[in-house]
Amino acid sequence: MAKARTSYRCSECGWTSPKWVGRCGECQAWGTVAELAAAAASAGLRSRTSGVEPTRRARPVSEIAEEKITRSTTGLGEFDRVIGGGLVPGQVILLAGEPGVGKSTLLLDVGHRYAQGSSAPTVLYVSGEESVEQIGVRARRIGADSERLLLADENDLATLLGHIEMHDPAMVIIDSIQTIASSDIEGRAGGMTQVVEVTQVLSRVAKSRRMPMIIVGQSTKESSIAGPRALEHLVDTVLTFEGDRRTSLRLLRAIKNRYGPADEIVCFEQADDGLREVLDPSELFREHRDKPVPGTCVTVTMEGRRPMLAEVQALVTEATNPNPRRGVSGLDTSRVAMLVAVTERSSKRSISNRDVFVATVGGAKLSDPACDLAVCLSLASAVLGRAMASDVIAIGEVALSGDIRPVPFLAQRVAEATRLGYGRILVPRGTKAALPKTAEASRLGEGPKISEVGHLEDALGLLRHLAAVPG
Length: 471
Known about the structure:
By secondary structure, this protein is an alpha/beta fold. It has 3 domains: 6-39; 77-279, P-loop containing nucleotide triphosphate hydrolases (Rossmann fold), CATH 3.40.50; 284-466, Ribosomal Protein S5, domain 2 (2-Layer Sandwich). The chain has helices spanning 77-82, 103-115, 132-141, 157-167, 192-208, 230-233, 333-347, 372-384, 410-419, 456-461, 463-466; strands at 6-10, 16-17, 33-37, 92-97, 123-127, 149-153, 171-175, 213-218, 237-243, 249-257, 265-271, 274-278, 296-303, 306-318, 326-329, 354-360, 392-394, 397-398, 404-405, 424-428, 449-453. The termini are far apart.
């Protein structure tokens, strides 16, 4: 008889190892690897290899009737937008975010507005982290005082299900999944076994009752969901709530959605009385000044399917030490270094031996290659000391050769720039003909001047024509 092998498994992500280690090789968590009883090698396959007769036969796609999805709005327009237009019966949503970013505040507002709807349903908010009194203080502060919003504090799964059976709510909010545990399963609350089991049970209950359910999950510093990755596969929709503690801006992003787009993003602003919807995020990421200043350029970035304007600022000064400093905020550092080199070669001006600082406005995080041209123009504007006019916007990806490459969603970008009143738009060569006529029409019937540039040298040559006229 073969000797039984001993293996070890991480309780957070399920990674296995033939020997014990103090740190998981997959999720890098410390102290989560424990011994796992393994079957003997000679046991062979335990599952049967013969099939059983299915209860429902496989059918052609043409025979399956298309089912129209019915949605119910929560009353919070931006939240409805990010999930695809409203809640679907039985939909399970996982909302992840770092502690303190505002998840509980957002969901209290969603629950209050949903309970205030025309049908006046009951909403059950269950917290495993705070007491009812603590939740009540926050709810009153943001005005979530609906009589149909029921609050409960509970950590046991069976008792939570008892609340659902007693009140028969139209929607359930659970804050958070890592604090709920089942007494029928071994393991600590928040462990891999408990989180997977609790999520599976709640998902079955939500779908059997056709009741939307929103589950809160904590996330790591890398904005990934804490706990087992299987948690994302057990729910219908995964949302991440991101924000910088130093700013009031909060981004709600969809990264998985079975009932809508998985690339939508909406913005909220943290205020004393809760979270406020930001209907036009472009206003947050650009400066409004009376007189243009050198070293600035505006571009259009895509956050999911939404075009947003963002301003790039550059400062180039004489170096005070043999090693010039580089400071980058809101942009990828290595890409900015590449764009500095390309700009130096195309402009034939010395930049690498100077201190260079590049940043975005309002804490915007720009990873869209379409922002490259704006970065290069802001650097050239800072070196030349020549301010660009306030109605100029630049869109395009810059290659190492200096060529300006086309970018996706150009029509949406141009339309957004036109809507906000920009009169001169730089786009990659060969893309102007593909723009719809409506993208070049303004409200007054006079569209913006769209100029094609094929190389960075061409764009820099236009800089003197795009410069602001001294007042």
